[in-house]
UniProtKB/TrEMBL annotation:
<feature type="site" description="Raises pKa of active site His">
    <location>
        <position position="149"/>
    </location>
</feature>
<feature type="domain" description="Formyl transferase N-terminal">
    <location>
        <begin position="6"/>
        <end position="186"/>
    </location>
</feature>
<dbReference type="Pfam" id="PF00551">
    <property type="entry name" value="Formyl_trans_N"/>
</dbReference>
<feature type="binding site">
    <location>
        <begin position="15"/>
        <end position="17"/>
    </location>
    <ligand>
        <name>N(1)-(5-phospho-beta-D-ribosyl)glycinamide</name>
    </ligand>
</feature>
<keyword id="KW-0808">Transferase</keyword>
<dbReference type="InterPro" id="IPR004607">
    <property type="entry name" value="GART"/>
</dbReference>
<dbReference type="InterPro" id="IPR001555">
    <property type="entry name" value="GART_AS"/>
</dbReference>
<dbReference type="GO" id="GO:0004644">
    <property type="term" value="F:phosphoribosylglycinamide formyltransferase activity"/>
</dbReference>
<feature type="active site" description="Proton donor">
    <location>
        <position position="113"/>
    </location>
</feature>
<feature type="binding site">
    <location>
        <position position="69"/>
    </location>
    <ligand>
        <name>(6R)-10-formyltetrahydrofolate</name>
    </ligand>
</feature>
<protein>
    <recommendedName>
        <fullName>Phosphoribosylglycinamide formyltransferase</fullName>
        <ecNumber>2.1.2.2</ecNumber>
    </recommendedName>
</protein>
<dbReference type="GO" id="GO:0005829">
    <property type="term" value="C:cytosol"/>
</dbReference>
<dbReference type="GO" id="GO:0006189">
    <property type="term" value="P:'de novo' IMP biosynthetic process"/>
</dbReference>
<keyword id="KW-0658">Purine biosynthesis</keyword>
<dbReference type="InterPro" id="IPR002376">
    <property type="entry name" value="Formyl_transf_N"/>
</dbReference>
<comment type="similarity">
    <text>Belongs to the GART family.</text>
</comment>
<feature type="binding site">
    <location>
        <position position="111"/>
    </location>
    <ligand>
        <name>(6R)-10-formyltetrahydrofolate</name>
    </ligand>
</feature>
Amino acid sequence: MKAKTKVAALISGRGSNMEALVRAAQDPACPFEIALVLANKADAGGLATAEAAGIEALCVPSKPFGKDREAHERAVDAALRERGVEVIALAGYMRILTPFLVDAWEGRMLNIHPSLLPKYPGLDTHARAIAAGDTEAGCTVHLVTAGVDEGPILGQARVAIEAGDDDHALAARVLKEEHRLYPAVLAEFVRGL
């Protein structure tokens, strides 16, 4: 049987999508393992969650690097390579990446975004979908490329926008779909490597 693909989950906060990936990886049939959870903020709640699950939790703080985002990414990249990471899953990693990291992990870095891309890249996706009068919203797993939220789409899940929805209610329903979609798409992706 092929060894499980070593995945690093990159987070900036509580890491609920990382938790969904960790849960999925506990199934013996899952083709990936979460080998590392890496955060750019020491107070990211997901670090404690990873430690509690027996996963290495590492902070490579971005603040000391100031505006030199590439220098920070070089430190992140070194940590990933030292641990034999094969695929990166961005899971609430709130940093716009430089060409250095995007190019270094081309074709091996996934992200989940809370909209039906190509609609609503960037922030405030739920409020924008409601304001536009859309009847559905959702989430997208895509490969990371140089353009923000522009990479090839690997999978999507749709959620109806209900009468009276505000961005918080819609976000909560979309998040449930994110937790279902991301592990499924990541598993399918690593099986194809």
